[in-house]
Amino acid sequence: MNPTTYGLEFAGGLFLSMLLLLEAGRRIAIRRLAQDPDGAHQGFSVVEGAVFSLLGLLIAFTFSGAATRFDGRRQLIVEEANSIGTAYLRIQLLPASAQPGLRKLFRQYLDARLETYRNLPGDIPAAQAEWTRSLKLQDEIWSSAVAACGDSGSQPAHMLLLPALNQMIDITAVRTEATKIHPPLVIFVMLGLLSLAASLLAGYGMAGGRLRSWIHILCFASVVASTVYVIVDIEYPRFGLIRVDGADRVLSELRESMK
């Protein structure tokens, strides 16, 4: 089961729980009003304001962090494409006899990188196999480039090609680690608890009328639950509805230019 499926289940459970607590809050308030009409709402606005403010801040910061990480992952794809393209162009600094073999390895390497992410999330074992293949190709490219630079004795090749290859290799580790950076689980637990507390208080505050305001009840629960789901969806852009796959086109266009 992928993370966004858990996110959908969490949001659905949160929605239903919020509805129950909205109703529970309303019934508690009705009983309190029957027993103490004048004091039922004394001090209520202070607690309500504090809880709703904290909930709003937590949602805002969590959503902002998820969006920032989403943009960062797209930027890393562009940086990887630039680093591969730069290293590929600098192969021209090597002797003509060494260039065809390295260019072939580059094409195979870029194919492996593209297939790694194309196989997500449907075929994770295939994605892992392509990832392992790309690591082996990195070693082959580096060894071949070092040998070619040594044979040529060209100072520009040493100074320009090898640093570009090093950057190309480093960016893969950066991208991998970026996919693992998410808010701690306690943040989502806190978000869920605050949503439930806010629902209880909202239900308590809506007890003044004889009839339930279903518009307010459903809107409040659905807006909070859907926002939580969107946050989870953005955090895992290879699995859900909001995806980062469109940025892979820069790698695909680079691969086409290598033919």
Topology overview:
Blueprint: H1 3-35, H2 44-89, H3 99-118, H4 124-152, H5 155-178, H6 185-205, H7 214-235, H8 249-257
Helix pairs in contact: 1-6, 1-7, 2-5, 2-6, 2-7, 3-4, 4-5, 6-7
What are its keywords?
single chain, 259 residues, mainly alpha
Structural description of this entry:
26% of the residues are buried. Helix 2 (44-89) packs antiparallel against helix 5. The longest helix has 46 residues, at 44-89. The chain is mainly α. The model has no long low-confidence stretch (mean pLDDT 89). 79% of the residues lie in helices and 0% in strands.
Query: In percent, how much strand structure appears in the residues?
Result: under 5%
Low-pLDDT stretches are none
Secondary-structure element string: HHHHHHHH
The level of helicity is over 70%
Distance between the termini: 38 Å
- Biggest β-sheet, characterized? none
Mean pLDDT: 89
Coarse shape: rod-shaped
Q: C-alpha Rg, in Å?
A: 27 Å
Count of DSSP H/I helices:
8
Which structural category do the helix and sheet elements fall into? mainly alpha
Q: How many β-strand stretches? A: 0
Nutshell version of this structure?
With 259 residues, this protein is an all-alpha fold. It has eight helices and no strands. The protein has helices spanning 3-35, 44-89, 99-118, 124-152, 155-178, 185-205, 214-235, 249-257.
